[in-house]
Automatic annotation (TrEMBL):
It comes from Ruthenibacterium intestinale. The lineage of its organism: Bacteria, Bacillati, Bacillota, Clostridia, Eubacteriales. Belongs to the TsaE family. Its main location: cytoplasm. Keywords: ATP-binding, Cytoplasm, Magnesium, Metal-binding, Nucleotide-binding, tRNA processing. This is tRNA threonylcarbamoyladenosine biosynthesis protein TsaE. The gene is tsaE.
Length: 141
């Protein structure tokens, strides 16, 4: 487990880019953190680091956003996901099977459904207006 401190959105995005360099097809990243913590900013960095060409936006209303590139990424919001059927209907496991990197915000809402999944777990805590404490478990940076 590693803990990082960032002091701006740009630093959070840069840490996401750094993590992207360690990822492989089918990797799962599970995010926890409150509203406005920086989960989407971190995902913006991951997508950029993977070479994705689409704009990164919060998947709050869409449930999933898919970003195309040499290593595609599926970006999920699990806030309203509560059952295995919900995950399956959203194509969660299909994206993993197809080799996309899957990043899931609000993973605590589906924790029991994902407990057995091999995953990189990232917790982001706001420590100030622009500062964050980011804990990464399951990846070496």
């Amino acid at each position: 487990m590693a803990v990082f401190e960032t002091n701006s959105k740009a630093e959070t995005v840069a840490l996401g880019r750094r993590l992207a360099q360690t990822l492989h097809p089918g990797d799962l990243i599970l995010f926890t953190g409150g509203l406005g913590a920086g989960k989407t900013a971190f995902c913006e960095g991951i997508a950029a680091g993977l070479g994705c060409t689409d704009d990164v936006q919060s998947p709050t209303f869409a449930i999933v956003n898919y970003y195309r590139g040499p290593q595609p990424m599926a970006h999920f919001d699990l806030y309203r996901i509560s059952t295995l059927a919900d995950l399956e209907t959203a194509g969660f496991f299909d994206y993993l099977d197809e080799g996309a990197v899957v990043a899931a915000e609000w993973s605590e809402n589906a924790a029991s459904l994902l407990a057995e999944q091999r995953a990189i777990r990232i917790d982001i805590v706001s420590t100030g207006d622009t500062s964050r404490r980011i804990t990464i478990e399951g990846a070496q940076l």
